[in-house]
């Protein structure tokens, strides 16, 4: 961090048309209207320093454990620590002690009941949750060119979108179930493993990817980019559910932010970067977007790789089914992201593109009024678990397992 102190980061794209259009008439404006945010650059310096800040605790564990033994042995050892916990006087490397004493310490602001309200929203919204994650949060994230650089540096495109999607889904589903984030439970395990995968990727990029431009792109997988990613899972995700006609209770909204605040804490994101509500999240996100240019060639490749995932994915047996699924995702992408972003990402223009999302919105309205909340949570959980199971079957060799 000290080396980077000399770099005075500026909100370099604040006058660019992509930034202004987003915040003055696009989804950014909708986020401001929906959250009551007061956006300005007063806190820019306070946040921008985190562009050059990384999770050093995670990095030290990777150096001590993953870089000194086989990946399989290292993963088994970490799993033991996750399941059994680490005590102050255990005979383990200091780095392991530091990381686990942090993640095992329950912050005094944590409210498990509130987290479960957030989990209920994620389950209750059933396939709308998965549409939102994929066609708004994930593909919308590709429009921020610098945010994608670690994906390009680690050659994520070669791994293919099916694998990338199943890893994201595996993580998301496992952290958004009842009580999943209690110490030693499944969601807690996923958070720790994801944190170490980020550190592993960051150290590998720094070692092997000589073209990394720190001044422009920040440190690889830096704390500020991590904040933006997790605002994607909370604020942007919730905005998408609303666009698809879901109503969200205040308690669920608070719960969703609380859930992702705690996941962020477990992932080693500094606490002052973790928003408590939609107003804060929108204000934090505004500052971050001012250092991101819009789509570049890599963005377009990533977006198309995700769109074509439906064609490559063997879950659906017949070609016509896969083509139809791709068409539905394209319709949702246009509906959720808007024209300007879709044109930049070169999303194909298809006929009747608002038909499916508008119908979905109408059906959600009826369904939400006819079916009890409890029944929707149960059905949503079951349907999401089924989608995850299908994905894991076809991508058996996920990093997480």
UniProtKB/TrEMBL annotation:
Q: What is this protein called?
A: DUF2236 domain-containing protein
Spell out where the chain crosses the membrane: none
* Pfam families according to UniProt: MPAB_Lcp_cat
Ranges where the ER-bound oxygenase mpaB/mpaB'/Rubber oxygenase catalytic domain occurs: 152-349
